[in-house]
Amino acid sequence: MARRYGRAPRGERCRLAVPHGHFETTTVTAAMRRDGLCAPTLFNGATNGARFRAYITDTLVPALRPGDTVILDNLQAHKVPVVREAIEAAGARLLDLPPYSTD
After folding, report:
1. Rg, C-alpha atoms of the chain
2. Locate the Tc1-like transposase DDE domain: which residues (predicted)?
3. Is the model's pTM score more than 0.90?
C-alpha cells in the first residue's frame, strides 16, 4: 500500500504516511437462502466456538424454518456440540462438508 513515487521540494525527502500493522479483523457470518442473505452478523475479531454458538442460538435459529438445511465446513468453531442440537431442535437438518472439500 506504499507509494513507490512521490513529489517533494528540491533537496527534501518525500515522506508519506503508510499503514502498517494496526489492522483489526472483522468477521461477517450469515446464512444464505435462494432469495438472498439471511441472519447476518458482524464480529470484531475472529470467530471462536463461543461466538459461533451465540450466533447460532441468538440469530440463526430464530430465522430457520422447518425443513431448512444448514451446511457447515470444517472450521473448529463449527464443531461445538450445542450447534447441532440447536439446529436440529429448530426442525432443520445439519450437513457437514467432508474434510478437504473443494466446495
Report:
1. 22
2. 2-103
3. no
- Percent helix, strand, coil in the chain, to 5, is 25, 25, 50
Residue 84, judged by CB atoms within 10 A of its CB (0-12, 13-18, 19+), counts as: middle
pLDDT, one tens digit per residue, over 11-32 is 998 888 877 776 788 999 999 9
CB neighbour class for 86 (10 Å; exposed up to 12, middle 13-18, buried from 19): buried
Three-class SS state of 93: strand
* Cell triple for 90: 429448530
Which grid coordinates belong to 5? Answer: 513515487
